[in-house]
From TrEMBL:
<dbReference type="Pfam" id="PF10263">
    <property type="entry name" value="SprT-like"/>
</dbReference>
<protein>
    <recommendedName>
        <fullName>SprT-like domain-containing protein</fullName>
    </recommendedName>
</protein>
<dbReference type="InterPro" id="IPR006640">
    <property type="entry name" value="SprT-like_domain"/>
</dbReference>
<feature type="domain" description="SprT-like">
    <location>
        <begin position="13"/>
        <end position="117"/>
    </location>
</feature>
<dbReference type="GO" id="GO:0006950">
    <property type="term" value="P:response to stress"/>
</dbReference>
Amino acid sequence: MEYRIDDLILELHSIHKQLNDFLFSSSLSEIKISIETSKRKSRLTLGHFDTAKDWSDNINQITIWTLALNGDYQNIISVLVHEMVHQYNYENDIKDVENNQRHNKNFKKVAQDIAKLNVVKSSKQGFSQTSATPELINFIEKKLDFNKQLFKKMIHKDALEYQPRGYNKNNRYICEGCETIINNSREIPLRIKCLDCNKDFKKI
């Protein structure tokens, strides 16, 4: 089935609503969601929250950058949740980012206590590195109603070609059966078989 970017945006709106109910007790306001290219932006930026004061319709916006579109729906949803933390803090008058864009302890507290995210502190960006906890992953896999195939198909070259300095380039493999995607930094090609559907992985 062919998917369009509009399909992904509609799916993210649905996921935002479900996560709003599950994590934030339905306290977050209506949101606009966009997908934008990572070109001319920091290559490490996966998402962004724009406050309502920047828009004539007075509605907040979350942007997912194409660098996040790697086919891993857990990763993409985790990026959405990260930006929902910023939305929650903005709507509750909580300053969570300093003038130098460092994520402070207010961000960390909401991300951990409310949004079910793991938080890691970086030297330059504060508590900006987040990932889904087992509780959030369990909700995504067992209770969240969304189209997993759409996320697996909507892969952008920005996410595939990005290579951080100082790191080995990741090789990506996709299962020919269930289309699960894995990353591996080993230079020698891997020969992998999926235990779920007994199909081979092929390099993307």
